[in-house]
Amino acid sequence: MPAVGSLSYSVRRRLVLLLCLLLHLNPSLSYSLKSCTIDYSKDALAEVIIDCSQRKLVIIPEDIPRDARSVNLYNNQIEQINNKDFSGFSKLKDLRLDCNHIAHVDDGSFIHAVSLKELYMSYNRLTKLTANLFQGLSNLTLLDLSSNSIQFIHNSAFQFLSSLQTVLLDSNMLQQVADIQPILQLPRIQNLSIKANLFPSFQTKDLPLNKPSGLKVLDVSESNFEKFSITTQIFPHLEMIDLSRFDQSEAMQWDIPDKTLLKNITQLILSHTFIPFDNIQNILQNLDSLRHLRLNYMERWINKGLLATVCKIPTLKSLDLYFNHVANISAKLETCSQLRELDLSTTHTTELSKGSLRLMKQLQSLTLATNLITKVPDDIRSLYSLEILDLGDNIISELVCEDFKNTTRLTELYLNTNRIAKLDGCVFENLNDLKILDISDNLLWTFGGAFNIGPQKLEYLDLSKNFILILKRGDFQGLGSVKHLDLVTNRIGRVKRRAFDGLNNLTTLSVSLPLEYENHFRELPHLENLTIYFNTDGGFRTLQSQASYHEASFHLKSLKIFKIICTGYHYGFPLDVPEEFFQAMKHLEDFTAENVYISAPDPQTFQFNFRLKSLKISQTDLSDLNPELFQPIPNLQALDLSETRLQSLDFLAQANLPALRQLKLSGNEITVINETVFQSLPALTYLDLDNNPFTCDCSNAGFIQWVMNNKQTQVVNGHQYTCSFPAAEQGNKLLDFDIQSCWMDVSFLCFISSTCLVVLTLLASFIYHFLRWQLAYGFYLFLAFVYDNRKRKKGAPHHYDAFISYNVHDEDWVYREMLPVLEGEQGWRLCLHHRDFQPGKAIIENITDAIYGSRKTICVISRRYLQSEWCSREIQMASFRLFDEQKDVLILLFLEEIPAQQLSPYYRMRKLVKKRTYLSWPQDGQHAGVFWQNVRRALETGDTVADNTDLLTGPAGC
């Protein structure tokens, strides 16, 4: 016998299905989007951000929430935008439609996106911008239409974009500068990029504007202009021009006769730009306000002495010369004393010419990255004002004490990706203002006392990707101001006690440690963020004692974020975590353990960490997870148990996690999920179950329905989950499984079917036993009704005076007594079935034709007549004609005395006999003449029935 609980649950599920059918629940209203995901931040009130990128979409998904703030549809296969695609998106602020196949946009498609500020539609197939394309976008500030095939812009295309500030029309097919006139007239336009179009030239005389434009940045790079001409006052606020080109086959003519037309230009970019040398000299000499100049791939003019002209620009403060392969380029800058920023990266520089930077007393930033410099240039020692120095990605192998002796104002120093093997104690001793130092990705194996006494103000130190073998006391003694330290490397083999002495204000530490380390973090009282990478070198390591781990963690009282990441083969960390390990971490909010535990942590692990909000345990076997592990941390908001061999989610029902919002369980062994588990997680909004071997059968029917119908929890990529079991469903989508058959199980259907069959059998038996004659009579009445209507429509005349209805056993009497009198003596035309029925026609049709083709019907009644099926049908049809037409058409002639009680089974006959008189052969047979005379009178009676006429035998008294 099935359990009562099981039966009631089955009934509840059926009722739920019935309710869904009645309410016509629409799966598209699901919170688990079919083709998108919802991005969440830690802020519960954050606006909705939808990511639908790279999903091979061909249309805009209908299930995107209408309250979305940002929608990313980047890199799909959408071909057109319809005017209803963004209906209701009144809160949308950012929309990415770039990298699609959009060739058409309906007018007014964005009319409901009244809050939209940024619209990206680059890398599509648009060919024109129509008048009402951007209707409704009055708050749009950025429009990116680059890399389309736009050839035509309607004069009114930008009329609705009153707040537009930035327009990108790069790499299109515009052929006339006049096409951009509607953009330049926008009241708030500041930035315009029209690079890589088909303009033969750019001349302001082709732009008859009603008033000057507010444009500040103009990018016309990658354009093969024959002429760049500004001859009218239409750009009084222009600050930056980009004239970079890739084709130097033809020179471009610069035509700006009045230098006051560019009086506000502060930045000029020339890259691959082929302008005659005299012309470009003239340009630079006339830019009185130029502050930032970029000359990339301009070796031809630099070798001709262009930098001599550049250095004479009194207002120039920033000079970018990267991507120029010029020998001894620094020597050409000796007179650039006014510079504050100089970028010489990627110039193939091996060394700076002695004295080349000597006059740059105001230089604050120098970039020499990605060159072939072997040592710190000597000229740097004379740059007393230098604040930022980038020597990264060179081949410097050694630092000496004099390298930074005079650059005492340095705040940022980048020495990353070089070949520095050791440091001397005096290298950084004069860098009293240094805040950022990056020496990552070098060959360092010792610090050499470089950090014993400073730098005193250093806050950020990156020593990752080096070859440090040992960390010992005193290595960081002078770094009292450092807040962020990165020591991630796979070479550290030993960490001694008090190795971090001096780092009193350290808040963030990322470090690689061996499994046997002596340090107890006693010297890091303010540490808030700790990431430890355990180095196992792929081999066996013995763990230090549990007591040592407890002592190491005891001093981490300020810790908020703790991450432990272990690579390679190991025996767990530790094999049995003592209850006291996290005892001092009262403020811990985020804990991550990747490839750390061998089995599930002890249930008492987090008993002292009631503030824990985020927990991640991955690459671990949690098949024996005890739900009591979560009891002490009811404030947990994010839980990640990916790749932990979980087979069931039942532990969540007992875990007591009322505040949990995000749950990640990807890469596990979960096959079946009971949807009731999520009832214990009332705040859950994000669920990731990707890469689990789901079973697609009725055991997951409840979970499938929950995924499709719940309005709170987003099941990330839920519509992409695939079936692993059974074999017949393998590869199919989980949510495509038909769950309706699950609610109505086979046993229930069999019960319903058998019940209906039994009821139908009982009903048929009852009808046959009690109502078969009434049904038969009704059937023949119906046939007679149909025939009578047909005859009326045709108006067919009567062929016979009377149809004789008799039983075959009474045939002798009919031929011997009746026919000689009625046909022979009285001359009536009679219809007899054996003589006048048409051969081949259905019997019932012959009977109907005979009755309705005769004026009267004479029923010769005997006991055998009453028992005959065909006789019964004949009298039933005749009686219907009697009462339907209200005509005297029926004559009853009894051959035998039949008591009334014997007529009871033939209810219609008894009813007729009781109501009307009839002819009786046994009574009148002794007076045959009188009998046949009465029959004649009955036949002679007209069709009209008088009030005093007997329908059966004629007038009363006969």
From TrEMBL:
Its main location: membrane. The keyword Membrane applies. The chain crosses the membrane at residues 770-787. One of its GO terms (biological process) is inflammatory response. It is found in: Membrane. Keywords: Glycoprotein, Immunity, Inflammatory response, Innate immunity, Leucine-rich repeat, Membrane, Receptor, Repeat, Signal, Transmembrane, Transmembrane helix. It is a single-pass type I membrane protein. Residues 798-939 form the TIR domain. It comes from the Eukaryota. GO terms for cellular component: plasma membrane. Residues 1-30 form the signal peptide. The keyword Protein biosynthesis does not apply. GO terms for molecular function: signaling receptor activity. Gene3D superfamilies: Ribonuclease Inhibitor, Toll/interleukin-1 receptor homology (TIR) domain. Belongs to the Toll-like receptor family. This is TIR domain-containing protein.
